[in-house]
């Protein structure tokens, strides 16, 4: 965790993270306006943040977009802070109004992602691939859905009462390395167009790097809330399951 604390130990880098918290997916030019220093100085600070995995990047054309990655901070919280916190039950598990069912066509993933998250998992590439596509395994680690049913390329996530929570349809796969799916929530009273997710599986010595990209969202992404909070909880469950075999659902009700 030393790189995390080193990265946070500079007010300029904290200002950059604050800026990304307010508006994710900024270019270097946009982030230069945050700090009163040279372009090279800003690039050095961004490199430190990227080395600590506090930001992730996506290059499109001549632009490089920077995203806040909260996963390393969550690991710090889980280790030292979370055991001492009592989270109010009244807080929503997820912002249900932020993700609703829709039928608009998917856009090409050559566009800039609206949200990115990456995490590192001590497992094999085959094990990660299987955990992302096997409905029985998905049912074990998903933070809200205790049952996932597969029908061909369609995955239906059920609420504990058996009603449909969400549907995801696999659009493309590159074996053991890439999965593209729809993201179609089935809760709430209103409706907005469906979105698209991409999982990138990247092997590194002794572990796997998983990158999550979410496209075509029709609402602002707020770190720590709504879709961002949901992905962090989902990733925590997946990581725990693959590394320990334990079924842990990281939701505020503490359901297992």
Description:
With about 260 residues, the protein is an alpha+beta fold. Mean pLDDT is about 85; it is low at about 85-110. It has helices at about 1-10, 10-20, 30, 40-50, 70-80, 125-135, 135-140, 225-245; strands at about 55-60, 65-70, 115-120, 145-150, 155-160, 165-175, 180-185, 195-205, 205-215. The protein is globular, with a radius of gyration of 18 Å. It contains eight helices and nine strands. α1 runs antiparallel to α4 (about 40-50). The protein has two domains: about 1-70, Orthogonal Bundle (Arc Repressor Mutant, subunit A), CATH 1.10.10.10; about 90-245, START domain (Alpha-D-Glucose-1,6-Bisphosphate, Chain A, domain 4), CATH 3.30.530. β5 and β6 form a beta hairpin. The two termini are about 30 Å apart.
Keywords:
Alpha-D-Glucose-1,6-Bisphosphate, Chain A, domain 4; alpha+beta; seven-stranded antiparallel sheet; 256 residues; Arc Repressor Mutant, subunit A; 2 domains
SSE arrangement:
Elements: H1 2-8, H2 11-22, H3 28-32, H4 39-51, E1 55-60, E2 63-68, H5 71-81, E3 115-121, H6 125-133, H7 135-141, E4 147-151, E5 154-158, E6 164-174, E7 178-185, E8 195-204, E9 207-215, H8 226-244
Antiparallel strand pairs: 1-2, 3-9, 4-5, 5-6, 6-7, 7-8, 8-9
């Amino acid at each position: 965790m030393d790189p995390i604390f080193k990265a946070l130990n500079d007010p300029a880098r904290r200002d950059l993270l604050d800026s990304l918290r307010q508006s994710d997916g900024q270019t270097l030019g946009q982030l230069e306006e945050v700090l009163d220093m040279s372009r090279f100085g800003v690039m050095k600070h961004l490199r430190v943040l990227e080395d600590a995995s506090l930001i992730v990047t996506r290059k499109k054309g001549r632009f490089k977009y920077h995203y806040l990655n909260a996963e390393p901070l969550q690991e710090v919280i889980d280790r030292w802070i979370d055991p001492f916190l009592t989270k109010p039950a009244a807080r929503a598990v997820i912002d249900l109004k932020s993700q609703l069912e829709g039928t608009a066509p998917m856009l090409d993933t050559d566009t800039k992602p609206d949200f990115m998250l990456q995490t590192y998992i001590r497992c094999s590439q085959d094990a990660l691939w299987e955990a992302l596509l096997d409905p029985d395994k998905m049912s074990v680690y998903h933070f809200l859905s205790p049952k996932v049913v597969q029908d061909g390329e369609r995955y239906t996530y059920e609420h504990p009462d058996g009603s449909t929570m969400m549907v995801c349809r696999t659009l493309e796969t590159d074996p053991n390395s890439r999965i593209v799916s729809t993201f179609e929530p089935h809760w709430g009273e209103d409706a907005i167009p469906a979105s698209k997710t991409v999982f990138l599986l990247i092997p590194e010595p002794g572990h796997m790097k998983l990158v999550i990209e979410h496209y075509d969202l029709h609402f602002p992404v707020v770190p720590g809330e709504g879709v961002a909070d949901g992905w962090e909880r989902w990733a925590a469950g997946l990581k725990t399951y693959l590394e320990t075999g334990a079924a842990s659902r990281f939701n505020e009700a503490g359901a297992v």
